[in-house]
């Protein structure tokens, strides 16, 4: 009897263990199912590239808000291109010269608003040109018609005093007039662009040259809409592109940005951003 009891007891234990094992089997695939569901979501949010974009303050193209956020026309344009190209941007603030050195050594991946030169092509790749840089003549409100139809050279020859900002590159036309003894003395140079607005209102100059987006931002911020207006004269200084470091960015990334720019122009997002910073 004892032997029969032992065998029966062992049989019962084996049956119980087998039953417990069977009841747990359906739960085993669940971790795998959860992982499979999470994978597509992770792939959607992960950027294909991460880039350090250098910037230096120049409102409204690039500036820091009171909330410590980097904003501006240039920032919005490049961010839109990066998003369309599947890239994530990290903003790094330095002086322009230090940013150029960063492009050379690869610590900075890209810069916006850069002019393409043979010297820079030795260490940088360039995107397609995406923005036209020009300067407009601004005069006191009500005086635009007074100088209507005249060229910048004719204005200066007639005694027109023109305000310019030191170290700005206004293009070949202005450079030639600044080098010409007959017109050079008509230029009034100031260290910062905002001095031109003050000099114009105080009748110290007859007009000044300014980037239209910078002028729109400054006039709006200072409430000078009733005192200053744009003149039809526009001076083209060149087109700008994105500049990528050859040390850290490959050609495929540049192509992706070019394709992104094309799509933004086609879907209207490019124009929407530009219009946001215009009058």
Automatic annotation (TrEMBL):
InterPro entries: SBP_3_CS (IPR018313), Solute-binding_3/MltF_N (IPR001638). Keywords: Signal. The keyword Signal applies. The keyword Signal applies. Its main location: other. Belongs to the bacterial solute-binding protein 3 family. This is Amino acid ABC transporter substrate-binding protein.
